[in-house]
Design brief:
- The chain is mostly helical.
- It has two domains: 13-100, no CATH class; 113-176, no CATH class.
- The chain contains nine helices and no strands.
- It has helices at residues 13-31, 36-63, 69-76, 80-100, 113-126, 131-138, 142-149, 157-168, 171-176.
- Helix 1 (13-31) packs antiparallel against helix 2 and helix 6 (131-138) crosses helix 7 (142-149).
- It is rod-shaped, with a radius of gyration of 24 Å.
Length: 177
């Protein structure tokens, strides 16, 4: 499922090979089942493989393509909260492995990838990047951006006053600038 106006979610085949291969092995076992009990066992293994493959793909979508848990949940037919519960541990484990090369390393990057996004948007706004540009980068409308992040904007009063004075051509602005 593609997000509207976003073709980044179309994974190239190599990223899907592990997931499809994993599910394919279990499908073959189901096809080769000789008795009903073998078929039920193979079907249970196939269902577990599908859950694992879904998780692998969702982790790729969150970490590689920048999907939110809400986006991954919509694609999987579950709520954002359920997606966050289902995929957060796998996403965090992959981030730890990527950063340190170990699953058991203690790395406090953020509780969920959204916190990294929130930190980036807050940093951009506090650095003076125009809200219209930050909204475009973050995929928000300016209204939503300012509603959510207005409390994060801090310490820009003096710089704003100087820009206003410079625009008005105040005599002190040329000397102080």
């Amino acid at each position: 499922m593609n997000r509207p106006a976003d073709n980044r979610s179309c994974h190239p085949a190599p990223l899907l090979d592990a997931a499809t291969g994993h599910v394919g092995e279990h499908m073959a076992a189901l096809a080769n089942a000789q008795t009903p009990s073998e078929a039920l066992t193979a079907l249970a293994a196939l269902e577990a493989a599908c859950r694992e493959a879904r998780k692998w793909i969702a982790v790729d979508l969150v970490l590689i393509d920048g999907w939110s848990y809400a986006d991954a949940g919509r694609a999987s037919g579950i709520t954002r909260q359920a997606a966050s519960k289902a995929y957060a541990d796998a996403v965090n484990a992959r981030m730890r492995r990527t950063i340190t090369g170990r699953d058991d390393a203690v790395v406090i990057v953020a509780r969920v990838p959204y916190h990294l996004r929130h930190a980036a948007v807050s940093l951009w706004l506090n650095a003076g990047v125009p809200a219209t540009q930050v909204a475009e980068w973050a995929g928000h409308s300016v209204h939503v951006l300012l509603k959510v992040y207005a409390s994060c904007i801090d310490g820009q009063d003096e710089a704003a006053r100087k820009r206003i004075e410079a625009a008005l051509g105040a005599p002190d602005s040329a000397e102080n600038a």
